[in-house]
Amino acid sequence: MGTGSHTDAIPLSGRFDGTVGVLGAIEAVASLRRAGFTPRRSIDVIMFNSEEPTRFGLSCSGSRAMAGVLSAAMLASLRDSLSNHTFSQIVSAAGFGGADGEAAMLAAARLAPDAFSSFVELHIEQGARLEAAGVPIGIVTAIAAPAAFTVDFYGDGGHAGALLMRDRHDAGLAAAELALATEAAALATGVEDTVATAGVVLLQPGAVNSVPRHAHVELDVRDIDGARRDAVVQHILEAAAEIAARRGVRVETAFVNSDPPATCAPAVVAAAAASADALQLPSMHMVSRAYHDTLFIAQVVPSAMVFIPCTGGFSHRPDEFASDADMEKGVAVLALTLARLSLE
Ligand code: GLV
Ligand code: MN
Ligand code: MN
Fold first, then answer.
1. Phi/psi class of residue 313: alpha, beta or left (left: φ > 0; alpha: ψ in -120 to 50)?
2. Which ligand sits closest to the CA of 257?
3. Model confidence over 233-245: pLDDT tens digits?
4. Is the pLDDT of residue 101 over 80?
5. Ligand nearest to the CA of 199
């Protein structure tokens, strides 16, 4: 069976997202050893590669590959945001992969069908529901589905002083309108599980005295209902086309990923809940609105997650924080859950 998470991060983020699930897994296994526990099944601790899209633009590349849902073509298209090298070049330079190319790398990464009987990931909640309820442990029953896509507007640009307002085709204003249309499309579902974000807006040439000629927008839309999420994505794409036509700018769109939501395995959820009970730690079932490596591992292995509170629900920002006491409780629940599942 498996447990683990990631240690990579997004810019200006905190120290707990992912890392708690890697160091916590190592500590959980170490504590089982210290207690003299002998599992019937082996327990593998995994640190997944590139859970965040920070470096290669695609989330969860490691767990996607392990689940067998990362294609060689998709892998070949990934570029390092710093050096523009391909994923294969970076992996080879680090002493892995090799000359056999993406297909061989993916075949080696893919989990064998019987590799794991179950998988559990420990993570900070990244929301404030546990803290608000005063409950130390969350047991995740479903993980929301993310879709990520890009919209590029191409206008004319020009001199910020000389070009009259009536003559402009400002790509930056098209992007600004699209960000507002994105907010409106998410709010229009009337369901709080729908969220949509225009997290990247890059303008070129990026000069205070120049009308933007190119705007690159990256969008993220999520929901626990995949069909509702797709309808919101469609609304945003239609808004992009309408804005472009009205403003006389050209638009191009491209999907980065569009993933199905995950349902956690009842048996793994039950094992985690029973472990919290046995430790006399109050727990509550919840959905995860953030995505995790478990979103992909759950496609091939019965999986669930254990959440611990983080202060104020803050995450993806520098003041992200989980207390030692809460991490200790999460590790204890993880250890007991692993112990239970490893005996089955
Ligand atoms: C994970 O980092 C996410 O964006 O949900
Ligand atoms: Mn994250
Ligand atoms: Mn994470």
1. left
2. 1
3. 999 999 999 999 9
4. no
5. 1
